[in-house]
Amino acid sequence: MRKVIILLAVMFTVFTACEKSTTSIPLMPSPIETITTRIDVGGYALHTQTRGQGKHTIVFEAGAGDDSSVWTDSGIFEEMAKDNQVIIYNRAGYTLSDAATNDVPRDINQLAKELNEVITQLAKSDKVILVGHSLGGPIIRAYTRDYPEKITGLFFVDPSHEDVENAADLQEMEDELIPYLTSIGQLGLVKELEQLTENYEIMINLPELPAIPVSVMTSTKLGDDYDETAEYKAAWLAAHATLEEGTSDFFHFATDEFGHAIHVEDPVLVIEHLKKLVDFLNN
Question: What stretches in the chain show pLDDT beneath 70?
Fold first, then answer.
């Protein structure tokens, strides 16, 4: 089976220890307070953290299997809070957040609704910059479809994309991973993986992005442990390039030095390009 990019995120998180980057931002003592709160999203609550202030509010959406610690442990959360309000949270069923009620599907449409509750209750700015990694990419695209008036910019970190996925592979992934993940108690991730084929149908119908600035970071590095090919990575790069359609300004950076979790392997690089987007929005 050709591995799709969501599987890379799942395997990275669940089956291996995340490698700490040698270029991580030093976590020095800071006078800026981090405010922790729980946000009710309809009968269950999500754990959130807010930090900093400024003209922009930046909201981070993690990939499948990841909680908000990928943004804090790397130093990205603290660094971007120096000049902006930043918000991170854990989706339902992940660390410190409640599990969703059984009657609530965990597809990207629902995840976008819950993201909106977080933004509505915590964001100080009328419009936000959304950052999405892997599955977080389709989530923020679905959010932008539903709430375009609340977005000032988008930043994608190696996002999942429908052009390099198909329903058969996603169904096979569900069948392979869900029994094991259920057995080890990864219930938040299981509920999301149960919606992979549904998400694919949603993704192929997502409209082009609105006329706002968009930045995309793409990994073209071949994974040592996966059956990736140069042709697959070329298709991956091309799929990300299609996100330009409809945008007012588009910035696309590709790296063959880092894998799918660019923000974990080299957070400094991600911070550099995220700050470039913020600076562009300021000018």
Answer: 1-30, 224-227
* Distance (Å, whole) CA 234 – CA 239: 9
Encoded tokens for 204: 């192929």
Tell me, what CATH number does 235's domain have?
3.40.50.1820
pTM of the model: 0.89
SS3 88: strand
Give long-range contacts, CB 8 A cutoff, 24+ apart: 221-225. Answer: 221/255, 221/256, 221/257, 221/258, 221/259, 223/3, 223/8, 223/259, 223/260, 225/11
Instruction: Provide the domain count of the chain.
Output: 1
Asked if 91 contacts 114 with a C-beta cutoff of 8 angstroms, the reply is yes
pLDDT tens digits, residue range 78-136?
999 999 999 999 999 999 999 998 788 899 999 999 999 999 999 999 999 999 999 99
Q: Which residues of 142-177 are buried (b: 16+ CB within 10 A; e: fewer)?
A: bbbbebeebbbbbbbbbbbbbebbeeebbeebbeeb
39: amino acid identity, one letter: I
Which residues form the domain of 245?
Answer: 5-282
The residues near 183 (Cβ < 8 Å, ≥ 6 apart) are none
What are the start-end ranges of the E strands in 167-268?
213-219, 249-255
| HSE-CB for 206 with a 13 A CA cutoff | 31
CB pairs under 8 A, 24+ apart, for 179-187?
A: 181/14, 184/14, 186/14, 186/65, 187/93, 187/99
CA atoms within 13 A on the CB side of 43: 6
